[in-house]
Every structure is written in C-alpha cells, then in structure tokens.
Specification:
Helix content is 13%, strand content 29%. It is α+β, with helices and mostly antiparallel strands.
C-alpha cells in the first residue's frame, strides 16, 4: 500500500498587531485508492491525527474491539472518525500500514482567527433599510469562534445556546478570553436602540443564536474541534453558520461538507477568505461547495483590503477594515480582517432569510450574489477574484428574493404545439443521423439541465426570416435540476446566406452554470453546448450541408484479424452509456468487457461535474447471452453518483439499467442475443466483424 505525507497548511495570527503569515506546503497528493495521510513536520507538537474509517461497519468494529488500546483525544462518530494520539509520525505510519479500513488519516491541523487592527465603520451593507429580523421566523444563526461574552451590555443574553469543543480547560462557550468571537458577534447582532455601544446588522435581539467555541483563548483550535462544532451547529438547527477562521486544506473537512450536500442539509456556511493578501486558498472558505461562501474584505471606499486573499473561490465581499464592535467586559474596539467581513454577510443572509423563511439556502445564496454591487460598475453581474460577485447589500438582496425577474418572452407567440412534435408542413418523417440534408425536415434536439433557478431560463428557435418556430412558452415548464429533452423536425430553408437562430435566455444574467447546461443537436451532431453566459446566448446554424461536421456519428474500427469463411459475421446492435456526474466527477470511471474478460472500451474523456456525458457503441451480438458483455461503473470514494447524478445503460434504444448512489463498483449485464438477431441463423460471410465504436 502507498501513502502520501503532506505538510499541513497553517496560518499564524498576531492579534491586533499585524497580518497573518502563511506557510505553504510544497505539495499535497492523494494516490488513487489509498487513504489520504497528512502529517506535519513540527516535532515539538502533539501528534494528533484525525482518522476517518471507510464505512460505518469498519468504524464500529474499531470502536468495539480496538479503541481501548489507543490514545483517544476525541471522537467524531457522526462521520465515523476518531482523533488519535501517536508518539511520532513514524508510529502513525506503521499503525496504518497494515490497515485497509481507513479512508483518511491527517494531522489535526491548527485553525486560527483572522484579523488585523485599523479603525473604520459598519454602515455599508444597507441593513437598516429593510426592517429588522422577523421574530418567530425560526432562522437560527451559529457562530464558530473563540466564545461569547455572555452578559455584555450590548449583546443579547436570551435566545442563546452553545457548546465548547476547544482544548482549553474549561472551554465554556459563554466566555471569551480572546475577544475575537465577541467582536464577530457584535457585528452580527449588537443591540440597537439601547443607547450603548454599537449596532449590529441584526439589532432587535430576536435572532436565535448558537455559539460554538472551537477556538481557544490563544485564537487557535483544531480541525477536529471545528468539525464537531459544525456538526453541533447543524444539529442545533442553524441555517447560517459564520466561520471567521482559516487553516490549511483538510480532507476530513471536505468529506464532511460532502456528507451534508449528499443528505440535502439546508444550511449556508459563510467563511473568511483569508488575510495573506495573495491568491492562495484558505479553508474552509475555499472549498468548492454550494453550501460554502468565501468572503473577501473591502474598506470604506470599496477598495479591496490589502490583506484580503483574492482567488477564484471568492464569492462575495463585505466591510472588514477597522470595524468597530463589541469586546469582552462591556468594551468596544476596532479590528480588521476578512474575519470582520464574514459576519456582515452571515448576518445579512440570516436577516433576509427571516423575511422568507421558506426559501432554501440555494435561493438565499443566489439572492446575495446576484444583488451584490461591484465597485467597478462595468463588471456588474460578473465575478472576479477580488470581490467575487461584489459587495453584499441587504436591501437589494431582499428585493431579489421578493421580486424575481420575469422570464424573457420570445419575439412572437407561435401556435402552441405539444412537446416532441414535428414542426413542418410536409409529411412527417423520423429524424436521421446523416450529415446531409435528408427529406423535407431537419432533425433537431434540445437538451437542457437547469440549475436551481429554472424559472429564470427561457429559449426560442427562430427561422431565417426571424419568426419564432417554437419556444419554451410552447413546451412543458422547466423544473429545477430536472433534465429536459425535446426532439423536433423543422422545415428546411437552404438559403446559405441565412441562418436559424437558437436563443438561450437567463433573466438574472448569470446563465445556468456551474450546475446546469444546455446542448443543441442538428442532424445528430452537437452544434453548441453552453452553461456560463449572461442574459442571452445565440447560436446560428443553417440547413445547408457545409455548415455541418462531416464525421459520422458512429466511427467503426477495423478488426485486427480477418474472420474465417466458416464462421458467420456477428451483426451489431447499439449500446449507449449515459452518465450525469455529480460534483465529484473525477471519482467516476467505467469499463466494458466481454465474456472472456477482454476490455472492449473504457472511459477516455475527463468527466465534468453536472455535464451530461454519453458514449455509443455498435457491439457484436453474442449468443448465448451467458457469453455477453459486462458494463461496470466505478466510484473511488465509494458513494456512487449522488445529489442528482445518475448513469443509464441502453441497448437498441431501450434502457436496461440505471443507477445513482451507494456503490464502489456496480455491474450491468448486457445481453445482446434474441431470436430475431441470433447470428446462427445467418449465412456464412467473409465480411469483417464489426468492432465496438465510441462516440462520446
């Protein structure tokens, strides 16, 4: 078994003095099918490791039979993990070398508060123009930090709960020897109208709060403590979780976020982007997840704070330079850092959510992003590495929730026609897969996989004269994340100076990516594929021959040897494979073998998350069926295709099996033989056997 040791990414902070410093590892690699092992070279530190087992049964077996012999620091049973203490990295490696039940083993790395002191104000996010938090809405917020100064004159002392997971003794959530957590809490919900101190984004004292003290008095903690706190927040019913902290990448953290995604947990984590001032990643903010937002820092002039990390993971920005807020002991002070920016966004999220408590975290995130204000107005509606979608704005975000933009209508309204109809005045004929015009109509197929905002999407097809042939108004309504397919045969117009136009619209101006996509096929050929566009994307195509690819949709490979005249040639039948990957497409592979175990075909293209993949073969018919084919799909993580992902296997146009989650490998038996196509009934021939073909 092979192992990889990578130095943990660590952030050190000098509170109220200077910007954090960062040590970047040379590399971090996970070898295929092996557990991830992250170890630190800090020999003077306690060697605590987070050990996550491959499945629940392996974990229970360890707890029942082996755990008494180990030095246990803490337990994470909700994700089948334990934090174990080892005397050295060598001992840890020796322990795991003989085990096959471990998925992840990594150093329980440090995480720290992110801050730096320079004064400024807190009134940039327009939180006071929309009314305060709606009492009784049930939208609870969680803060994972250094604690909370219970009894502070300017902080609420009711509607509170909490727990401590740090290594301080005691680690009481209602105390804060560091001050970082109390400062963050004041930004979110310092009381208004009491004539004391400052005012938070939410100021009426009605928002339920759960406090998790995962960072100790030094401002540091461990990933195991943070993970337990994240779990506690979710269990407590929090909808928004603020994480003004950061550290190096943790595989265990990433796997827990994946667990929450796969179970459909409706929660939004808001985290600080980091204070290094460069384009490096800080975690958890930089995790690729629809339930995690990365927040950058701006000053009072809407400039990026010089220390704010800027990269392609930044989602949004907020004030974070010299922010005045609450401190322990009924005092107040200013701090700076992305740690001060993150609670602005978290509080705005909770505030607007309280006005529409039936909305989902996806809708809340979309409202925050689409309403954010870019400092450079020319970039409004687009993302960049410094500000993400722009600076958070509570007033506009609430408007985005209450007044969704209407769907763009087509130019004119054609006569309604049912889905899957053929649009032509000539006699109807079936679509053809040739590259040349054939017959009185042109086969066309539209595939759409909407994102979570299908109501924003519309489309239309215009003929060369600019008239609407059909549009989304004529067809069935699109559903969030629901695959949509429409086949047409439209009347040809072979005027080579004119083109048909296919227009895709998005009323919000952000397309349907990254989770959605669309494809247009003409005469069986893919003409365009789209995902990321603004309000409109146009594809032009002609019914003339030279506008189309000349390749055949099926490419046949010559056999390696000629068959004998005494053996009949096996005719072939169409085998198609369709895979709709989840967010972890890189874990998926497949292969097709015959009865003898010979590899017929396998995945050669890189799968893309949430982008439909298909492959076609013309496989020789083999009789009897006991000597047929076996299709196997593999998932290296062992959870299959989750969160809406799936695969389908079809033979001669008929689906024979489909699957989603819950497997490491899954086999599908492909039986090609029946009475009508049994090759034994065919006359001998010297034609070469048709080999399998692939056309992804």
């Amino acid at each position: 078994m092979r192992f990889v040791i990578s130095q943990s990414l660590r952030i050190s902070v000098f509170i109220l003095v200077s910007i954090s410093t960062l040590s970047i590892p040379a590399h971090s690699v996970q070898l295929k099918n092996d557990p991830v092992i992250n170890a630190s070279d800090d020999d003077d530190e306690v060697l605590d490791y987070i050990v996550r087992f491959k499945d629940g049964s392996s974990y229970q077996n360890f707890v029942s039979n082996e755990i008494k012999a180990m030095s246990v620091v803490s337990s994470l049973p909700f994700m089948s993990a334990e934090v174990l203490k080892f005397q050295s990295a060598d001992i840890a490696l020796e322990w795991i070398a003989s085990r096959k039940d471990i998925a992840i083993m990594e150093k329980d790395g440090k995480v720290h508060a992110l801050e730096e002191k320079i004064p400024f104000g807190i009134n940039m996010v327009d939180a006071f123009d929309i009314g305060d938090y709606v009492d009784g809405s049930g939208i609870k917020t969680c803060i994972i930090d250094t604690g909370y100064d219970l009894g502070h004159e300017d902080l609420q002392n009711n509607n509170l709960s909490g727990a401590g997971t740090c290594h301080d003794d005691p680690c009481n959530w209602f105390e804060d020897e560091n001050s970082h957590g109390t400062h963050v809490a004041g930004t979110m919900m310092a009381l208004g109208g009491n004539g004391k101190g400052v005012v938070g984004v939410v100021s009426n004292g009605k928002m339920p709060i759960h406090i998790e003290r995962a960072l100790g008095s030094s401002g540091s903690g461990t990933w195991s403590g943070v993970l337990q706190s994240m779990k506690n927040c979710v269990t407590a019913g929090a909808k928004v979780v603020n994480m003004s902290l950061g550290g190096g990448f943790s595989q265990t953290l990433a796997s827990y976020i994946r667990d929450l995604e796969d179970t459909g947990t409706d929660v939004l984590f808001v985290a600080a982007a980091g204070n290094m001032g460069d384009d490096t990643y800080s975690y958890p903010a930089s995790l690729d997840s629809p339930i995690m937002m990365s927040v950058a820092c701006v000053d009072s002039s809407s400039n990026r704070c010089y220390f704010s990390q800027h990269n392609d993971k930044v989602d949004i920005a907020a004030p974070g330079y010299g922010v005045i807020s609450t401190m322990p002991g009924n005092s107040y002070s200013s701090k700076s850092g992305t740690s001060m920016s993150s609670p602005h966004v978290a509080a705005v999220a909770a505030l607007i959510w309280s006005h529409y408590p039936k909305k989902s975290s996806t809708e809340i995130r979309r409202a925050l992003e689409t309403s954010a204000i870019q400092p450079d107005k020319s970039q409004q509606g687009s993302m960049n590495d410094e500000f993400g979608w722009g600076i958070v704005n509570a007033k506009l975000a609430l408007e985005a929730l209450s007044n969704p933009s209407p769907t763009i209508s087509p130019v004119s309204s054609p006569t309604p026609m049912p889905s899957n109809s053929f649009l032509t005045n000539a006699p109807t004929q079936s679509p053809t897969l040739t590259a040349q015009p054939s017959g009185p109509c042109m086969p066309l197929k539209i595939l759409i996989r909407p994102d979570g905002f299908a109501s924003e999407i519309s489309w239309e097809l215009l003929n060369p004269h600019g008239r609407v042939v059909t549009s989304s108004l004529d067809q069935e309504e699109l559903g969030d994340h629901n695959f949509y397919e429409l086949e047409l045969c439209i009347a040809t117009s072979c005027d080579c100076d004119s083109n048909f136009k296919f227009n895709m619209y998005d009323s919000q101006g952000d397309g349907i990516g990254p989770w959605g996509w669309y494809e247009l096929y003409v005469r069986g050929h893919l003409i365009t594929r789209g995902s990321s566009y603004t309000k409109k994307e146009t594809t032009k195509f002609s019914s003339c021959t030279f506008n189309y690819p000349t390749d055949s949709p099926y490419i046949t490979t010559a056999p390696t040897s000629s068959p004998t005249t005494s053996r009949p040639t096996a005719p072939c039948t169409d085998l198609s494979i369709e895979i709709y990957p989840d967010n972890y497409a890189s874990e998926i592979s497949w292969d097709l073998v015959n009865y003898d175990g010979d590899l017929i075909a396998s995945l050669s293209d890189k799968l893309v998350p949430w982008v439909l993949y298909s492959a076609h073969f013309c496989v020789p018919i083999i009789c009897p069926n006991s000597h047929g084919y076996t299709f196997t799909i593999h998932d290296t993580f062992g959870d299959g295709l989750t969160g809406g992902g799936y695969f389908k296997v079809s033979l001669a146009g008929k689906m024979i099996d489909e699957g989603r989650g819950g497997y490491t490998s899954r086999e599908v038996k492909v039986e090609t033989c029946n009475k009508k196509n049994d090759p034994s009934s065919l006359a001998p021939t010297v034609s070469p056997t048709v080999s399998p073909t692939v056309s992804p």
